[in-house]
Write a structure and sequence with these properties.
Largest sheet: 3 strands, antiparallel
Structural class: mainly alpha
CATH topology of one domain: Leucine-rich Repeat Variant
Strand content: under 5%
Order of helices and strands: HHHHHHHHHHHHHHHHHHHHHHHHEEEHH
Helix content: 55-70%
Strand order of the largest sheet: 1-2-3
Number of strands: 3
Number of helices: 26
CATH superfamily of one domain: Leucine-rich Repeat Variant
Distance between the termini: 94 Å
Length: about 425
């Protein structure tokens, strides 16, 4: 009855019949063919209802899809809009439908253009169709460029030509285009990282910049950059600078950057220092690795600068630093003294946990010089070690007899030897601070 009513002489009857068919969850082949025929109806409201009815079906036969493609050329803008929306609801579309939707992006009616763009965003586009959007990124009209970036942003995979076009779009004068291009590239991280292997240094530079604009990179991306850091080609290693912008790095990335502090290429060393220096906090393992890197003359100053930026250092890190004081390299000793001066109170607190030789070294190469500058004092009373720093008095409670004895004997031994090789160096550091 409803199919027959589509041929009624009264346009209101035909319109209601098409509307009623649109409410059916599934339609027989005869209903599809009847609705396709109605797309040629002289009344635009009837045609619109027929398009709506077809659009509500989850799967359409090829004949219905082609009829909707034809409806994109309808004289009435509402019919064209509904045709675009109906095509956008399909899980997959033939290339002819995709090309028709691309053509609809030039429709004189902005609502139709928006509907076509939305439909294309829902579809996986073949590379031939993507080329139209890649070219549209150069269009003089910012609305066209916006729609192009939006469509590309919705694609699960993109060819390298699209990635390069989006990278260039990061410099578009329109903020919306730039934002959408950044988001699109964020979805394509794996492919974007592959672009870093391009032979053209300009392409690599742009790709690095694009990755650097991503506020958060997944750990899988960190692994790719770690691979770049270990590459024999210094240009490939340097593109890992995209990780510099990350406020939080994975443990493996941190370790890779620590290794890069000792790279023969100064650019890579600087890159690693910048990346590590931007970390608000570093795990103990990273702090210890930085301390281990101090003896290396290539890594020393970068590692020391990173350690200086840490507001606090755990006792284990301070113990490791004090152990490094025993190295005979005077420049290394100055670096360690500078670091200990940043954490004087905590340094005093770790004294009982040190070995006798480490206590002697700390006393001789650091505590005496600090005392001479700030009139600091340290004494043992009962089971407590008392000290006074520029921050005020402090004490270490609850020490056992063995610890107290160890501290006293180590101090006595250091005083007997009375060898103070770093007085001038330490005073110079203190003056600089």
């Amino acid at each position: 009855a409803l199919v027959g009513a589509l041929q009624d002489k009264d346009e209101d009857v035909r319109e209601r019949a098409a509307e009623a068919l649109g409410r059916q969850s599934t339609l027989p082949e005869s209903a599809f063919q009847a609705l396709i025929g109605v797309l040629q109806d002289k009344d635009e409201d009837v045609r619109r209802r027929a398009v709506e009815a077809l659009g509500r079906q989850s799967t359409l036969p090829e004949s219905a899809l082609q009829a909707l493609v034809g409806a994109l050329q309808d004289m009435d803008e509402d019919v064209r809009k509904e045709a675009a929306e109906a095509l956008g609801k399909q899980l997959s579309l033939p290339e002819s439908a995709l090309q028709a939707l691309i053509g609809a992006l030039q429709d004189k009616d902005w609502i139709v253009r928006n509907s076509a763009a939305y439909a294309l965003k829902q579809s996986t586009l073949p590379e031939s169709a993507l080329q139209d959007f890649i070219g549209a990124l150069q269009h003089e009209n910012e609305d066209v460029r916006r729609e192009a970036t939006e469509v590309l942003r919705k694609q699960s995979t993109l060819p390298e030509s699209a990635l390069q076009a989006l990278i260039c779009a990061l410099k578009d004068k329109d903020e919306v285009v730039r934002k959408s291009a950044t988001e699109a590239l964020g979805i394509q991280l794996k492919a974007l990282i592959d672009v870093l292997k391009d032979k053209d240094w300009r392409v690599k530079e742009l790709a690095t910049e694009a990755l650097g604009m991503q506020r958060i990179l997944p750990e899988s991306a960190h692994q790719d950059f770690i691979g770049a850091l270990q590459h024999e080609n210094e240009d490939v290693r340097s593109v890992a600078e995209a990780l510099e912008t990350q406020s939080t790095l994975s443990e493996s990335a941190l370790q890779a950057f620590i290794g890069a502090l000792q790279d023969k290429d100064w650019r890579v060393r600087n890159l690693a220092a910048e990346a590590l220096g931007k970390q608000l906090t570093l795990p103990k393992s990273t702090l210890h690795a930085l301390i281990d890197a101090l003896p290396n003359e290539h890594a020393r100053y970068s590692a020391a600068d990173i350690l200086e930026k840490q507001s606090t250092l755990p006792e284990s890190a301070l113990q490791a630093l004090i152990g490094t004081l025993q190295n005979k390299d005077r420049d290394l000793q100055r670096c360690v003294v500078r670091l200990l001066l940043r954490h004087v109170e905590t340094t005093f607190m770790v004294i009982p946990s040190l070995s006798p030789s480490a206590i002697e070294t700390l006393y001789r190469d650091f505590l005496i010089q600090y005392s001479s500058k700030y009139s600091a004092s340290l004494w043992v009373q009962g089971h407590q070690v008392h000290f006074h720093t520029v921050q005020g008095p402090g004490k270490i409670d609850g020490l056992c007899v063995e610890d107290v004895t160890k501290v006293v004997q180590a101090f006595n031994q250091a005083q007997k030897r009375a060898i103070l090789p770093l007085v001038e160096d330490c005073n110079q550091v203190l003056e600089e601070l």
